């Protein structure tokens, strides 16, 4: 069962996600869509900052939202500022890396490496390897090792999020929220990687790809906000 505050979060951010998807299809690459999404994520971060946190892991998870807002500014919001004629995506990538470090630290409780954990690693590592090999010819300079480090961190975060289901530290409901949140972030960042580095998807605005990114990104972080609003582990 979801608490009242968790239901409120879902009732706000899921409809807004649908609204953003509809607006993005009607007005592709519109600045108003970018502004709306950024304000939405800032408000989500603020909601996690003010809520009372009963567990130290919730405090660490909440810190990840600070890095999320910073990363989003450099990756998305800065592109709407005409006078800012420079690529700041590197700072955005670093911001998300710090956010994922926070999540890894929070999800590592009762760490173990059993059969379930090894099986969970197979699709995560397999998909990342295929994506990296596909994009590698298009990565220039420092972006090749940077993408490898970022992708490895993303994959580890996703894997350890899934593994919370097997480790028994968090409640079953919380573990599933964490696992689904991690998977959605993983899907989102794969979509972002193609939109940034693939020669076709980076040269034109591909609405269906952006829809996948937004449909995974906002709900993924919203589910994490539900975990921070959870009264029990």
Automatic annotation (TrEMBL):
The residue stretches assigned to a coiled coil in this entry are: none
Q: Which InterPro entries match?
A: TMEM86B-like
Q: Which GO terms describe its cellular component?
A: membrane
Indicate yes or no for the key word Transmembrane. yes
Which residue ranges does UniProt annotate as crossing the membrane?
Answer: 7-23, 35-51, 63-82, 88-106, 118-136, 142-164, 176-196, 208-228
- Membrane topology per record: Multi-pass membrane protein
* Superkingdom of origin organism: Bacteria
Please provide the record's keywords in A-Z order: Membrane, Transmembrane, Transmembrane helix
Where does the UniProt annotation locate this protein? Membrane
Q: Which Pfam families match?
A: YhhN
Q: Which family does it belong to?
A: Belongs to the TMEM86 family.
Record's protein name: YhhN-like protein
């Amino acid at each position: 069962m979801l608490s009242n505050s968790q239901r409120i979060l879902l009732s706000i951010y899921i409809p807004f996600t649908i609204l953003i998807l509809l607006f993005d299809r009607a007005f592709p690459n519109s600045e108003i869509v970018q502004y709306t999404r950024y304000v939405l994520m800032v408000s989500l971060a603020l909601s996690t900052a003010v809520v009372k946190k009963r567990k130290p892991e919730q405090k660490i998870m909440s810190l990840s939202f600070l890095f999320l807002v910073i990363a989003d500014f450099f990756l998305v919001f800065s592109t709407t500022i005409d006078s800012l004629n420079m690529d700041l995506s590197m700072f955005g990538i670093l911001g998300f890396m710090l956010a994922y470090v926070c999540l890894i630290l929070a999800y590592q409780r009762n760490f173990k490496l059993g059969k379930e954990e090894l099986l969970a690693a197979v699709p995560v590592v397999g998909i990342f390897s295929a994506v990296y090999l596909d994009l590698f010819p298009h990565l220039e300079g420092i972006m090749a090792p940077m993408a490898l480090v970022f992708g490895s961190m993303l994959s580890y975060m996703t894997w350890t999020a899934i593994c919370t289901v097997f480790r028994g530290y968090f409640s079953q409901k919380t573990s599933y929220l964490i696992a689904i949140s991690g998977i959605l972030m993983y899907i989102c960042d794969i979509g972002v990687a193609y939109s940034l580095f693939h020669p076709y998807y980076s040269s034109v605005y591909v609405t269906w790809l952006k829809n996948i990114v937004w449909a995974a990104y906002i709900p993924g972080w919203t589910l994490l906000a539900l975990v921070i609003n959870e009264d029990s582990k």
